[in-house]
Amino acid sequence: MSADRQGAVVPYALAALGLALLAWGSSWGLFAAPGETYMGDVQRIMYVHVPTAWNAMLALTFAFGCALVSLFKGGWRWDARLEAGMEVGVVLSTLLCMQGAIWAKPTWGVWWDWDPRLTTTAVLVFAFAGILVLRRFVDDPVKRAVWSAVATIIAYVDVPIVYFSVRWWNSLHQVQSSPETVSKAFHWPLRINAFGILFLMSGLIGLRTRLAVLRLESELAPPLPPPAAVAPASTRGDR
Amino acid sequence: MLLAALRKDFLLQWRTRAQVLAILIFGATSLLLFSFAIGPNALALRQHAAGFLWLALLLSSTLSLAESFQAEMEQRALEGLLLLPASARALYYGKALANWGQLAFLGLALVPVMIVLYDAGTTNIGALVGIILLGTAGLSAPGTLYAAMTSQARARQTLLPLLLFPLVVPVLLASAKATSLIILGDPMGQVRSWSLLLVCFDLIYWSLCGLLFGRVVED
Amino acid sequence: MTDQPLLAVDASGLCRRYGRRWALVDVSLRVPTGTVVMVTGRNGSGKSTLLRVLSTAIRADRGTARLAGFDLRTATQKVREHVALLSHSSYLYEALSALENMQVEARFLGRDSDRKALLPLLEEVGLAHRADDSVETFSAGMRKRLSLARTLLQEASVVLLDEPYGQLDPPGFRLVDSLLDRLRRRGATVLMATHLLERGSELCDLGVVLEEGRLQWFGPAAQLPSHASFGPAAEGN
Which end of chain C is more exposed for a tag (fewer CB within 10 A), N or C? Predict the structure, then answer.
């Protein structure tokens, strides 16, 4: 299970590729693409916002998958991937909320407009950040793995329920308020950015997993010590 | 075996009933403090009464749930039972049902406090009781699981609300909304939809947490 | 008790770690049914860990074991039906009375939880006069007696006792001796972790010495005192 430099190449490469794509897609969307008719320049945030949303959900779904495998099949790698996926998911979701606020202020005049999807994302951030905190407070690696997996499954199942309840709750105010509709001409910067964030995210998850594995290695006992110099007595007792 | 678990948990609750009184007073005090935060505006108080009732109940639940595993962990009695062997599932449902009972009691006991402080009465007692039962069930299921988990960890007082609160957002939303409609009037008959949401949440989490409890308490 | 396997305990290569430390290292043990075994060793040598692993309270990281014929990993619930553990923790509910603690256990075991049915056992451990007092008011010795009663109630075929003499007074010592005798006559297998070498070597059939998680010696209990000097590794038999 020892980490070697070769293992780090792929994640770094993915991350670099992701950054490059992201830079390309963002510059195209933010500067080169024509402005949207009704919303103007603020709508450009959608080129970053939508890909972030897709990938945040993807990261957390990946974490959910890792939780299932970790719980039913076991294995330290899956717990490490769970930690990585969740951290990246939380970061992306937090960015999502920030982007939402940046969009909302000029558009609606308030920083937060209780849009169902963004509100659900905010709840997600707290839920999964809480699980990351839980991990910090459990010293035993086995318990930590089992408990995080259980908590992740429970939190993930809650996501659609939270979404629906917030949507009903908000429907009285009839606000559909996140940068959404995109006409065909704008698809390319969006796709490029989506893949950009995807690769960047995969690279980051890969690197973070390696970090988690290294930490586990330091926490768990090294391989068993060699057999004692004196062999134990016969293992069948006689009266 | 579920019966044995229920008897055990209700017996434990009965023996430690003084603590329930303390938690009730805590809940009532919270309601009082919330009203101070709003100010003596009768209309605003009435409008927010339902939300504050559920907030007070949510805060009280962290005390109640944490305490429910105190007795199980101080001498590792839970492990002793698991080794008999006792089914982890039976132990979970026994505890969750007992916690539900205690939370429902707290909720119902706080209603008169709310009525007095917020002038938020209603003639539809049946519906109010129903919502309190459904809502506290939603708090009890995941709460019991997380209480079992955090009572074995460090910083347990902070961890339980940290993990539970984001999870029960739907319960808080639905219960507060439904209660508010019951108090203020429900022209479009929305209480039913909110009740349905609560029923769904309860069904999902009472099954899911029952399945996962065994993994949380085994070593 | 019909259909008893020849070996009450058949363990092979048990290993268990706590964080960075291996508490049990490659412990293999074969205990014939009906014997009373004394498990001894220094503090921290792994006695409690071994008993806890065999009782399924904790899982072994490596190795296999069969207790009363059932595999620890694949037939955990069955193992628990046949094994009883007297642990360092009392497994008691402090808020309940002695009798109530027994009643809770009896109900989970599916036994008669009537007062009349359980008082005799409390009588035997010398707690009948405090049956209705809350465990909170008990001294350490009394708690130990109640835990003993609790363990006996299970009527298991394999009984694991972790320091049964701990916290007890001289009458308590005699109580444990008589309980061991009773268990032996019943045909139960007993593994008892204790430091009381002389007592153990008289009462037990076999002895096990653990040192730093490893099985250092296993043989007739009478030879135990000379092997368990708790000094450097003993010679093999």
Answer: N
Distance CA C235, CA A233 (A): 8
> Residue-wise pLDDT tens for chain B (219 aa)?
899 999 999 999 999 999 999 999 999 999 999 999 888 888 888 889 999 999 999 999 999 999 999 999 999 999 999 999 999 999 999 999 999 999 999 999 999 999 988 888 888 888 999 999 999 999 999 999 999 999 988 878 899 999 999 999 999 999 999 999 998 888 788 888 899 999 999 999 999 999 999 999 987
By the CB < 8 Å criterion, does B81 face chain C? Answer: yes
**In this structure, what token pair is assigned to residue C202?**
């008289």
CB B144 within 8 A of CB B92: yes
Instruction: Give the type of residue at A3.
Output: A
Is B209 close to A157, i.e. CB distance below 8 A? Answer: no
CA distances A115 to A101, A166, B58, B186, C65, Å, are 11, 8, 24, 24, 57
Amino acid sitting at position B93? Y
Q: Which two structure tokens, joined as six digits, stand for C6?
A: 């020849």
Neighbours of chain C (3+ CB pairs under 8 A): A, B
- Can you tell me which residue has the tokens 């909304």? B177
The SS3 assignment for B94 reads: helix
ipTM score assigned to the predicted complex: 0.91
CA A106, A108, A113, A115 dihedral sign is negative
Rg (CA), chain A: 23
What is the overall mean pLDDT for chain B? 93
Residue-wise DSSP of B187-201: TT--HHHHHHHHHHH
CB–CB contact B79 C59 (8 Å): no
Q: Hey, what are C150's tokens?
A: 């609790």
* Amino acid code (one letter) for A131: I
Say yes or no for a CB contact (<8 Å) between C107 and B86.
no
Least Cα distance to B182 among B143, B148, B131, B144 occurs for: B131
Q: Does residue C140 belong to the interface with chain B, where contact is any CB pair within 8 Å?
A: no
Contacts of C146 (CB under 8 A, 6+ apart): C90, C92, C98, C101, C102, C122, C125, C127, C135, C138
pLDDT digits (tens, 9 = 90+) for A213-235: 888 888 776 766 655 544 444 44
User: In which band, very low, low, confident or very high, does the pLDDT at A200 lie, cut at 50, 70 and 90?
Assistant: confident
B22 at A interface, C-beta within 8 A = no
- Tell me whether residues B81 and C108 touch, CB distance under 8 A: yes
**In this structure, what token pair is assigned to residue A31?**
């500067």
Contact B129, B191 (CB under 8 A): no
Q: What spatial distance separates the first Cα and last Cα of chain B, rounded to whole Å?
A: 22
Nearest by CB: B170 against A124, A154, A161: A161
The two tokens of residue C168 are 């007890």
Q: What percent of chain C has pLDDT over 90?
A: 75
Measured CA to CA, the distance from residue A84 to residue A81 in angstroms comes to 5
Q: Which residues does C107 contact at the CB level (< 8 Å), separation at least 6?
A: B3, B4, B7, B8, C113
pTM score > 0.80 for this model? yes
Closest residue in chain A to residue B213, using alpha carbons only: A150
Tokens for C236, please give them: 């093999």
CB pairs under 8 A between B and C: 72
CA dihedral B155, B158, B164, B167 (to 10 degrees): -110
Rounded-to-integer distance, Cα B9 and Cα B97, Å = 9
Strands C7-18 and C21-32: antiparallel
Structure tokens at C126: 């010398």
Q: Are B115 and B179 in contact (CB under 8 A)?
A: no
